[in-house]
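1st attempt posting a full record on here, be nice pls
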Amino acid sequence: MEKTRIEQAKELSARKKDISKWYTNIIELAKLIDKRYNVKGCYVWLPYGYKAMVNIKNIWDKLFQEVGIEEMYFPLLVSIDYAKQNDQWFNGFKNEAFWVKGIDEKEANYILRPTGEQAMYPMFSLWTRSKNDLPIRIYETVSSFRYETKHTIPIIRDREITFWHEIHTAHSTKEEADEEVEKILSIY
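the predicted structure (as C-alpha cells):
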C-alpha cells in the first residue's frame, strides 16, 4: 500500500534521528532511483534521476573540454597483472574488488575496476616515451565497482558507483603538475 503524503512527511521529519534513512527517503520521493533492485548497493536510475545526472555530466564535459582535458574510456575489466603493478594501490583495494573469472577458469584473472588508476597508468607508460609526449590530460566518466560490507547509501556510496568521473594527468615537471591542480580546483 502506498504511503500518504502525511506519512511521507512524518518519515522525513525523522531525519534528525537517522540522516541515512532521511536521505534515502528523499532520493526515493524525488524519484531519482529505485533501490529495490535485488543486489545490495545497486540501484536502478529512474528517468528523472538519470536525466539529472546526464545534465550534470554535460556540464562537466563542457568545463573540462574548455580547458583542454579530453574524455576517454578505459575498460571495466582490469587484468590482475595491471592491478598488481602498484602494490600499495592493490593492497588498498583487493578486499573491495569484485574478482572475475571465466566459467572454465579456476582463478580470477580480472577485477571490475574499483577506480581508474589501475587501467590508466599502465597505458600512460606505453604512451610516454619522452617529455615530448607530455602532458597527458584526460578524464573518464564510468562506473566503478567496490564490494563494501558497510552500509551502502544511494548515489553516495553504492557498490556500483555510477557517473564516476576521474581526471588524470601526467606532466614533465612538478611545477606543471601543480599548475594543473590549481586549474582543476578552480573548475570544481
